[in-house]
Design brief:
Layout lengths: L2 E6 L6 H10 L5 E7 L10 H11 L6 E6 L3 H8 L3 E6 L2 H17 L4 E6 L9 H9 L13 H9 L2
Parallel strand pairs: 1-2, 1-4, 2-3, 4-5
Length: 160
């Protein structure tokens, strides 16, 4: 069984992420979405909330599980028996960092390879930070995030 890990902050999950998730499920038997707990970035949603949002967004897609992790990604991959790391590439600006990350991870664990899926043109511009920015001003985020999580994002800003 081929197991893949799709790691990220997912703060919150966007339609761009969901597109990568759906395409990645065709490449592996099980896709474990790994929500990074101890990101240096200050997150809007807690790791547990981000896991819940992803679970809601991926309900009905088979072959997907969602978990949070901290520490080294290659260690998490080893624990889950994963041989593939999935990352999305949006623009050339993503490339340098992603290349360094992939090469480092391969050095740390040669049994794991990173596979890059290029973003669909529809979502090339989309990022979690853009969604947060628009939502913080009460703007319309329905084109950017899964319908099942829209209200939760607005609620987060109302309760702050
Ligand atoms: P990170 O903080 O690790 O970059 P993100 O949650 O921002 O985590 O992104 C997780 C992964 O999803 C990364 O590989 C990123 O390049 C990819 N990604 C983010 N937004 C998009 C998008 N709109 N289309 C395709 N891939 C994306």
């Amino acid at each position: 069984m081929r197991i893949g890990i799709y790691p990220g902050s997912f703060d919150p999950v966007t339609l761009g992420h969901l597109d990568i998730i759906m395409r990645a499920t065709r490449l592996v038997d099980l896709l474990v979405i790994g929500v990074l707990k101890n990101s240096s970035k200050k997150a809007l949603f807690s790791a547990q909330e981000r896991v819940e949002l992803l679970e809601r967004a991926t309900k009905g897609i088979s072959g997907v599980t969602v978990e949070s992790y901290d520490g080294l990604l290659v260690e998490f991959a080893r624990e889950r028996g994963a041989s593939v790391l999935v990352r999305g590439l949006r623009a050339v600006t993503d490339f340098e960092y992603e290349l360094q990350l992939a090469q480092t991870n391969h050095k740390l664990n040669p049994f794991v390879d990173t596979v890059f899926l290029t973003t669909s043109v529809d979502y090339a511009y989309l990022s979690s930070s853009i969604v947060r920015e628009i939502a913080s001003y009460g703007g319309d985020i329905s084109q950017f995030v899964p319908a099942a999580i829209i209200d939760t994002i607005y609620e987060k800003y109302q309760n702050r």
